[in-house]
Write a structure and sequence with these properties.
heterodimer; A: 123 residues; mainly alpha; 4 helices; globular; B: 268 residues; alpha/beta; 5-stranded mixed sheet; flat
């Protein structure tokens, strides 16, 4: 049992930062699992479980992107785009830096409270 | 700076954090609809209508031999709940006070959450929104006079959805009075009513829904009830004087029911 996802004293971190760190760790684990299954498929040919990891990775990523507008903006400029990946990355980074200059210090990028969907939360 | 004009307000970063945190804390428990329906967006303040994918004929085409049709859209509605905060209270918060009086923000948050819930569950005719309960072809059955009647009526509602091929999981939106009764009640043998209802729903959520009259059982399978957010809930700045800062909570959204038979209303 450890708290390796924290690199600062957890008690000094906000609840939001702790949740963010947990999900970043989870995202890493899902990516690792996808890699493990890819290797296993080479020798076993069992394709069933890898789909679950794809789904979990996507869900973790979406959770994080909802809480990080700039990360989301850069992903929108890179993911699912045809053409040069590096060029898209540079353009998305530049665009997000420009946009973030206008963003207020608190709240989401649009100044909202960032509440969004609550479906799937605890009852 | 966007349309909320937050940077024009005489409010420090600490003050904005306090206001945003308080609003979030007050809104989240009350936004029942967002726990049960599909949410799309936020698409931004300039987003003004939802595509319905339908057309209607236009009577007078511009030229002979040309027919015409016009796209039908559902315009987004804007909700705004105004409130004020004493500047002295914000100044005390900057000094480290922990008991800032934000009662008017709390009231505004409750009001706008209720307005959202009412629009989604009971509709808003003037805004072109049909609510889940009123759109359902299922005639509202009584929830029951006492909480002990609830399991039977909720089970019947779930069965009525299954009978028309609407799969679960299912959720239950309960008006505040009915929700209180559920929480307080243990059935014969001491089994909590809340847990019994959750089993009937297949583990789906039982949601406290201020603004809802009676209750609504609905499928959570997705694709049936569509909330489209333009500007998600945000605090904006209106004006200020020497004593008070005038602010508002605001959002824009549309709501539509794609599958009316995916919900069964229960009357109180």
């Amino acid at each position: 049992m450890g708290f390796d996802q924290y690199h600062e004293p957890p008690e000094e971190l906000s609840a939001e930062s702790r949740t963010f760190a947990r999900l970043c760790a989870s995202l890493t684990e899902e990516a690792e699992a996808i890699g493990w299954y890819a290797q296993r498929l080479d020798v076993e040919g069992d394709a069933d479980a890898q789909g679950e990891e794809f789904k979990h990775f996507a869900m973790d990523l979406e959770f994080l992107l909802r809480r990080s507008p700039r990360w989301r903006q850069i992903c929108e400029g890179v993911l699912f785009q045809e053409g040069d990946i590096v060029a898209h990355g540079e353009a998305a980074e530049a665009g997000s830096a420009e946009a973030s200059a206008d963003v207020e210090e608190s709240g989401a990028a649009d100044g909202s409270l960032g509440i969004g969907s609550l479906k799937g939360g605890e009852r | 700076m966007n349309h909320l004009l937050r940077q024009l307000a005489p409010i420090s970063e600490v003050g904005w954090e306090l206001l945003d945190d308080e609003a979030r804390e007050r809104l989240q428990p009350s936004l029942a609809a967002r726990r049960l329906v599909d949410f799309s967006g936020p698409h931004g303040w300039q987003y003004s209508s939802t595509n319905l994918g339908r057309i209607e004929a236009v009577d007078s085409p511009a030229a002979d031999g040309v027919s015409a049709a016009q796209r039908r859209v559902l315009p987004l509605v804007e909700l705004r709940a105004e409130f004020s905060v004493a500047r002295a209270e914000l100044a005390d918060s900057d000094r480290g006070a922990l008991d800032t009086d934000l009662a008017r923000l709390d009231t505004a948050a409750q009001r706008i959450a209720i307005a959202e819930n009412v629009a989604v569950f009971h509709g808003w005719a003037k805004a072109g929104i049909a609510g889940i309960a009123e759109a359902s072809p299922v005639e509202a059955q009584p929830l029951g006079t006492s909480a002990e009647d609830y399991p039977r009526s909720v089970a019947r509602a779930v069965e009525s959805l299954r009978a028309v091929g609407v799969e679960g999981p299912y959720g239950l939106a309960l008006g505040p009075d009915e929700h209180t009764q559920v929480i307080e009640t243990a059935e014969h043998g001491g089994y909590p009513l809340f847990d019994h209802l959750a089993k009937i729903l297949g583990g789906g959520p039982i949601v406290w829904a201020p603004g809802v009259k009676g209750a609504v059982v609905l499928s959570l399978r997705g694709g049936d009830f569509l909330f489209e957010s333009g500007q998600d809930l945000a605090i904006g700045y209106s004006h200020h004087d020497a004593e008070t800062v005038h602010l508002y909570l605001e959002e824009s959204f549309s709501f539509r029911v794609a599958t009316p038979e995916a919900a069964a209303p229960l009357s109180s």
